Amino acid sequence: MALNANHAFEDLGETKCSIAEKNCTPARADFLKDLLELNGYTVVIVKSPPPKAAPKPAPKPVTEGEVAPVVEAPPPPPPPDTFTVGVTDLMFNPANVIYNRNLKTRDGHYVTPDYWKQKDAASRDEEWYWNK
């Protein structure tokens, strides 16, 4: 168990892993797997457990002479499939590898926070204030 949420560990399948991200979509899991394997990490992906269902609200009390309406709500849609992405290197910490510039993309640029979050399609090396 991690001391804080920034460096989480779990057993994914039979392997102890450092968690890269939880509850991500299949497309996000594929993106992270490709990026992390490109940088030399062994990636483990498992399906996340479904979220716990909220308790049903209690029915309103019916007074004498009233007829309780019978309304059946449609069943809720099934929750989307989500995945947990882990890395077998227990020293892995997503914040550290991004901000220490330890990850690179296929074209050789450093991974930026926006690229990691998939807000930016291409990772551009930023000009750091101490390089000016």
Walk me through what this model shows.
By secondary structure, the chain is α+β, with helices and mostly antiparallel strands. It has a domain at 1-51 and 81-117. The chain contains three helices and four strands; from the N terminus they run E-E-H-E-E-H-H. It has helices at residues 26-38, 94-99, 113-116, and strands at residues 9-12, 15-24, 43-47, 83-87. A four-stranded antiparallel sheet has the order 1-2-4-3, covered by helices on one side. A hairpin with a 2-residue loop joins strand 1 and strand 2 (15-24). The radius of gyration is 22 Å and the shape is elongated.
User: Number of DSSP strands?
Assistant: 4
The low-confidence runs, each spanning 5 or more residues with pLDDT under 50, are: none
Portion of residues in helices?
Answer: 10-25%
The secondary-structure element order is EEHEEHH
Shape: elongated
Q: Kindly state the mean pLDDT as a whole number?
A: 82
Termini separation (Å)?
42 Å
The major sheet is characterized as: 4 strands, antiparallel
> Which class best fits the helix and strand makeup?
alpha+beta
Residue fraction in strands: 15-25%
How many individual helices? 3
Spatial ordering of strands, largest sheet: 1-2-4-3
Q: Measured on Cα atoms, how large is the radius of gyration?
A: 22 Å
